[in-house]
Amino acid sequence: MHDTELRGPLPRRMWRQLLDGITPWGSIDIRPVRWGGTCYRLVLYPPGITHAERRRVRLWRGWPMWGAGLWLLILMVLARTTDPWTALGWATAGYLAAGAAAYVWAGDIRGRVRTAEVHVLASKNDVPTLIRSRVIRSLGTTMARADEQLAAGEIRSADYEATWWRVYDRLTPGVFEAGIR
Q: Which chain regions cross the lipid bilayer (predicted)?
């Protein structure tokens, strides 16, 4: 996030962060899961996409969550004025229409987003799974480090984008799995 985006009223900053995400390249998420496991997930947007394109893709990818909220809101509003089955029908139609609109609006970029995810169970010593988790963590660390270097002025925008391309290419379907074996 740029320095100019960190200024201004808190609601505006929160809204921008919700729409744009924390980083322009995507996200790394490492979280505990049930039974003592850990989930590693790396999401990479295509390098060179604009803010508007990233927002549209994030809108599409977040549709199940915000769409459910929309469904509930429509249901609550209409349940007061119509019978429950009509309200349920309109809420479902609104949910599906919003999802279809987000799908179309995201365009072909939604298919170029690359995601790698692995669940490591604490009780298992599955070597390929452990290697995948380390690769995901390493690629996410590479991008986080590039963010820090760009913000500190240690690298140029061209170097940042070159790093982004290297990580994005590393996550190419087939290449990611082949590099682990």
A: 63-81, 87-106
55, 29, 57: which is closest to 139 by C-alpha? 29
Please indicate, yes or no, if residue 66 is contained in any of the structural domains: yes
- Please give the model's pTM, rounded to 2 decimal places: 0.77
- Domain for residue 87, yes or no? yes
156: phi then psi, degrees, rounded to nearest 5: -90, 165
Residues spanned by the domain of 38? 25-178
Distance CA 41, CA 109 (A): 19
Contacts of 42 (CB under 8 A, 6+ apart): 26, 27, 28, 29, 115, 116, 117, 136, 139, 140, 171
Whether 61 and 110 have beta carbons less than 8 Å apart is answered as yes
- The two tokens of residue 17 are 């962060």
Rounded Cα distance between 70 and 147, Å, is 34
Q: Is 40 helix (H, G, I), strand (E, B) or coil?
A: strand
Which pLDDT belongs to residue 15? 65
Would the pLDDT of 151 be above 50? yes
Residues 112 and 135: their CA atoms lie apart, in Å, by 20
